[in-house]
Amino acid sequence: MPPPADIVKVAIEWPGAFPKLMEIDQVSCITKPLFLALFFFSQNRNNIKNGSILRLTTSAAQMAQQLHERIQSSSMDMKLDALKDLANSSRDITFAQEFINLDGISLLTQMVESGTDFGDLLSFTLTAFVELMDHGIVSWDTFSVAFIKKIASYVCKAAMDTAVLQRSLAILESMVLNSQDLYQKVAQEITIGQLIPHLQGTDQDIQTYTIAVINALFLKAPEEKRQEMAHILAQKQLRSIILSNVIRSNKPINDEMAHQLYVLQVLTFNLLEDRMMTKMDPQDQAQRDIIFELRRIAFDVECDSNNSGSIEKRKSMYTRDYKKLGFINHVNPAVDFTQIPPGMLALDNMLYFARHHQDAYIRIVLENSSREDKHECPFGRSSIELTKMLCEILKVGELPSENCHDFHPMFFTHDRSFEEFFCICIQLLNKTWKEMRATSEDFNKVMQVVKEQITRALTIKPNSLDQFKSRLQNLSYTEILKLRQSERMNQEDFQSRPILELREKIQPEIMELIKQQRLNRLCEGTCFRKISSRRRQDKFWYCRLSPNHKVLHYGDLEESPQGEVPHDSLQDKLPVADIKAVVTGKDCPHMKEKGALKQNKELLELAFSVLYESDEYLNFIAPDKHEYCVWTDGLNALLGKEMTSEFTRSDMDTLLNMEMKLRLLDLENIQIPEVPPPIPKEPSNYDFVYDCN
């Protein structure tokens, strides 16, 4: 066992000595005072070597007692050195406990309240105070109003030492967060207007602590005062100041600043919670007037007093207009807003959109009201569900997370950022609806795609709402499908060479399975509607493939069948061997006829024809996209051609991935090598035998 003096010398000379010495078995016999001394030396190596500490202490209690005496010294130099040592030593909880037991916190607060210390003396005093309070040993409720006033005065002074200002802001934040009583006292001593100038400086640490104090005041304020505080923040142009001096400054934003901006963003959006959880009162005339305003802007109609005609006629007119506006309840749309969330917040967003983006609002409403009922994108229902979705994405109503840094710069670029966010997203929803050619049954599917578009656009943290809008323009429905496909293919499980080879090996099996399914569907047959160039007629015909896959049977029907039509009832036949080609879209003869271009564009996408003999055609209009893909795939399979429809690609991906997962189930958590193992060398001779018995 080396003598204690040698151990102390090593601890002083070598910064990493303390943790290394603690790993030595022999050191287990070191006494507690020596152990504490070693820790103190390792933390204060420079001060010891510079002579700041005049004599070695052997315990935290003795060190605390000495510093307690030295910080009361009449010598300013000795007092300054003692406060430096205290600021450093206070990080250790053992020392902190001993110093607090000596009523050290009261001594520090008295020194602050006296107002006799300035500059470094005050800075180290406040630093030691912050470090001691961070251990949570002393309650924050024990401090006097005089101490709070003194700390607040340091924050309010125009020219204050940076270190003192930083510590004072940290103390105010902790007071507000840890005591409701102190929140009241701090709120009386300091105003938002006094904090704003600190954000206009260039010191990011000061800016961070300033925003932290604002967040603390915001978080602890009673609910009825938060809206008032938000109004004051808007008047003081806090958002603009943060945007220009923090977010768009030349300095990169550190993690702590990012966290405080995230907290401010969450607290700002949480102001919407009250409206989000407020149901509409169908009997409240003021609230009903908002719905009347939506109707007036959309259809350019006057108020009730100017309407002529009977009450029944006006009711009928209202019902018709509310249906066009996309409300679920056409008679009394106020009922739609009784669902919480999003409650009245959805109606607020709709009114904002109608007033501030009037052209886009009118275009969306009129565009959808002119479509078939099943293809219209209901503006009212969409707005309600979209508002609910945006609240979920932004976590409206949830307290900020302790470790999150996920703030979005674009929300600091507009005073009504949530409403503008909604306006961009409702136009995106309408665009995506058209791209997906959705019907009312596809509503939830469209909402899922829109949510994915929004979340993907937010991941790049756009600097402005315009950038966010531009990003959404690039995230069309087609692009989302490509991204999904790419992500599935880029999974680690599917990238190794053996896996890719296995995929290639089983792909023909899957394609044959899809081919058999398509031919089986052709054998079941499909009812097609006859369409003339002039108008749609309710005449039908049926076509099906024979079980031996050699003949197409078809014929006219009087009405749409309830099930399969037997071969015997279909008068006409077309041998598969006579089929020359299959053409689609504009190449079909019945799409080239006079007047055909006036047909709905959807018909072009559902049209295909079978060419047989020299110039004879059998023309089809599929009832939907699925049947179109089934028949074109099946006919191409009969002709020995490749099946190229989007349904074939989708089925291939689904079935191939399922088959791969099933085959690899037994290899879960087993590392598959990139290259096959080497083949062993041939033996020198083959004069050996294995006796199985």
Automatic annotation (TrEMBL):
One of its GO terms (molecular function) is SH3 domain binding. Coiled coil: none annotated. Residues 286-458 form the ELMO domain. GO terms for cellular component: guanyl-nucleotide exchange factor complex; plasma membrane. The keyword Transcription does not apply. It holds the Pfam family ELMO_CED12. Signal peptide: none annotated. The keyword Transmembrane does not apply. PROSITE patterns: ELMO. Keywords: Apoptosis, Phagocytosis, SH3-binding. GO terms for biological process: actin filament organization; apoptotic process; cell motility; phagocytosis. Involved in cytoskeletal rearrangements required for phagocytosis of apoptotic cells and cell motility. Acts in association with DOCK1 and CRK. Was initially proposed to be required in complex with DOCK1 to activate Rac Rho small GTPases. May enhance the guanine nucleotide exchange factor (GEF) activity of DOCK1. This is Engulfment and cell motility 1 (ced-12 homolog, C. elegans). It comes from Cyprinus carpio carpio.
